[in-house]
Amino acid sequence: MSLHALNTFTIRTRKLAKTALALSLVAGLALPGIAQTVQDDAAMPDTSLNVPEGLTIFGKQDPNVRRATAIVNSEIITGTDIDERVALILAANDAPVADEERQRLRLQVLRNLIDETLQIQEAAANDITVDENQVERTYAQVAQQNFRRDTAALDKYLASIGSSPRSLKRQIRGELAWQRLLGRNVTPFINVSEEEVNEVIARLKANKGTEEYRIGEIYLSANSQNRAEVAKNAAQIVQQLQQGGSFVAYARQFSEASTAAVGGDLGWIQLGQLPPALGVVARDMQVGQLAGPIEIPGGFSLIYLIDKRQILTANPRDALLGLKQLSIAFPPGITEAEATRRASEFATATRQIKGCGAADEIAKRLGATVTNNDQVPVRDLPTPLQDTLIALSIGEATQPFGSVKDGVRVLVLCGRDDPGVDGGPSPEQLMANMEEEKVNRRAQIYLRDLRRDAVIEYN
């Protein structure tokens, strides 16, 4: 078994770090995910409606019944449109999705298609068109980078899962059109001063050595009337993620934060930038861990710890390792007791390894397979092994790990190229990131206004 196969030991929810997801398009298509909490008052609608606490609802309405299709400013969204988008989400899941969850996905996909339609319509109203050749070029990029296929193979794959090239190309067209619209109507009016950038640089230097976190978030808004229902929905999403669902796909479809377009990625932030309830939980999380639902002012959040590092300090997860793997396999039909005995013998023998030079001799004596691999990035290994290997000295071996099915193995650390000290982002990078964050917030307000002014009929 190669070192690459070790990645199968990582927990399923670590899929946030992957880019080959059905709903993740080419980098740069979606709005950038800048560190931003959900408490962005500028992008939230006015809720001062003076709704009485004690009210009577006249008439009967089942909140679980929703219309399947819609007409958005005279443009029809069909049931087929919804089915093909849902198929993309289901294809990104490792586990079957219950009927109730599938219905919730359909409702969310319909909302997303309405937003996409509004974005395309607004771009057309501003004489912004997306050339068909550009859509085809982007589709080819998506096929190669995200699906590891050429366009013909991607066409067949999409048809096989119940989706279609037309559906994915429309999503591409919508994101390109929206991006160009923002580039004309929003970006030119965004300004970040040198004073703002210098303030951020000063804070980074003052906080050198303190920890910052890269967090993914799914935010669901709630009020006193729907709190119980939203909490139930959040718990169902957690269940789907624990069963192998894609965090990125669920964040794109369900999160109500402005970072939904980039899979909920908040970027690198300090705990003080989060609502207190989230900061308390994130502080004790391990990389690759999922937590929630967590109640915060205005709703509930699910958070996923993508990575952790110290500000302006070398990140040990950026080190490159030289590793030697010793592995033994168990014959088919072996009993658990016998496998445990052999694994114990293997552990006793490998504890005698004193450097990589002695590893080959011990492997020969044990009948173990030896695999060498240099320049292995620490962060490419499963999270539990990352922490173990970071703490090892050259020549030391890990504790044995594996299973009856996959065999048992140890890793011997033969070399380490430590990363240089992180000098932090340049002023130009900071300014670009801050501008992108402001664009992202304005984009949410822009889309909110489009929804408010739209004529939408549900069929």
Account of the 3D structure:
- With 459 residues, this protein is an alpha+beta fold.
- Among the domains are: 194-312, Chitinase A, domain 3; 316-417, Chitinase A, domain 3, CATH 3.10.50.
- Helix content is 42%, strand content 17%.
- The chain contains 13 helices and eleven strands.
- The chain has helices at residues 79-91, 99-125, 132-145, 151-160, 165-185, 194-206, 227-242, 247-254, 276-283, 336-350, 356-366, 383-391, 427-453; strands at 70-72, 75-77, 211-221, 265-269, 290-296, 299-310, 320-328, 369-377, 401-403, 407-417, 456-458.
- The strands form three sheets. Strands 4-3-6-5 form a four-stranded antiparallel sheet. Strands 8-7-10-9 form a four-stranded antiparallel sheet, covered by helices on one side.
- Strand 5 (290-296) and strand 6 (299-310) form a beta hairpin.
- The longest helix has 27 residues, at 99-125.
- It is globular.
- The termini are far apart.
- Residues 1-47 and 61-67 have low confidence and may be disordered.
In short:
With 459 residues, the protein is α+β, with helices and mostly antiparallel strands.
Alpha-beta classification: alpha+beta
- How would you write the strand order of the largest sheet? 4-3-6-5
| Secondary-structure element series | EEHHHHHHEHHEHEEEHHEHEEHE
Distance between the termini: 55 Å
Please state the second-level CATH architecture of the domain at 194-312. Answer: Roll
Find the count of extended strands (DSSP E, 2+ residues).
11
User: Looking at the structure, what is the overall shape?
Assistant: globular
Give the percentage of residues in beta strands: 15-25%
